[in-house]
Amino acid sequence: MAKIKFGNIEEKVITREEFSLEKAKKTLNDETIAVLGYGVQGPGQALNLRDNGINVIVGQRKPSPSWDKALKDGWEEGNTLLSIEEAAKKGTIIMYLLSDAGQKMMWDKIKQYLEPGKALYFSHGFSIVYKDQTGVIPPEDIDVILVAPKGPGAKLRNLFLEGKGVNSSFAVYRDATCKARERAIAIGIGIGSGFLFPTTFKKEVYSDLTGERGVLMGALAGIMEAQYNLLRKKGHSPSEAFNETVEEATQSLIPLIGEKGMDWMFENCSTTAQRGALDWRHKFRKAVEPVFEELYESVKKGKETEIVLKANTDPDYRKKLKKELNKMAESEMWQAGKTVRKLRPENQ
In the beta sheet, which residues pair with residue 58? Predict the structure, then answer.
């Protein structure tokens, strides 16, 4: 493993120079990788592996929109596209990429196909760490591994097609064959990871659930709504409020952060923006620190997973989710966003 300093902390990571695609293909040469689930992570990981010359089959429920999508993506019914159970039976590495609630519901049907020497692969520590809630307890004689791309499946695929990639964490929960680590890393390289950093199932799920509810989605949405609503309350127009809240952030500033970091973004803004941002960031950090502490404890205690499993197993979940998302989409803020996006120069 390469030793690289992140800040002042030296970490060991796996780079593509160290573990090449050719090495990954050699490691997986005798494996049949069965991707169970073709929803969020399934398509990107399966297609990237296939394009990299690795033997992959897909297991998906039929009929379903995901089954139809798999057919459109070139998977052949009866050959590389099978039922979930058939794929699990044929696979030597079973990539369990159903939703977290789906993994719980399908477990009793899947576990019978986990024969000695096989590997059970996850992209989230949810089912294993919260096994008391999910009932997912793998047999002792199989490998249990994880690779978690730091991005949604669609982004994983799009970046791959652009010759790029996302970073991923990897972990080994159980090494029954003495080759679990190599299996995990090989798949990580095969799906197009930029580099792989080690974690544990527990650390992955704690950080992931905190991140999704925090900066990545929940906090970001909430802060944008708060600022937009304030500007509108103070008499600013929808177009001005949206541009100052969302458009400038997503189109100008966040790309600068992604390119060279927050300090570089600050450096390339006006001195007025610099001074104000440097001062107010401390107030915002102190204001949200208690919220993040509460969030992390809720994740650690299993409250968040309890909420997820209860909601996702509700027969009316999709209907209720659609209602919540429609409420967001139909809000003035995001309706203004639709118009702003249409008016971008590239859309004229």
Answer: 35, 81
124 catalytically annotated = yes
Same domain, 118 and 148: yes
Helix (H) or strand (E) holding 173: strand 168-174
Q: What share of the chain is helix, strand, coil (3-state, %, to 5)?
A: 55, 15, 30
- Residue that is written with structure tokens 């001062």 in the block: 279
β-bridge mates for residue 198, sequence order: 170
DSSP, collapsed to helix, strand or coil, labels residue 230 as helix
> What domain range is 73 assigned to?
2-199
Rg (CA), the chain: 22
Quick check: 151 pLDDT over 90?
no
Q: Spot the catalytic one: 50, 118, 124, 157.
A: 124
**Total number of domains constituting the chain:** 2
Tens of pLDDT along 29-73?
Answer: 999 999 999 999 999 999 999 999 999 999 999 999 999 999 999
- Predicted model pTM: 0.93
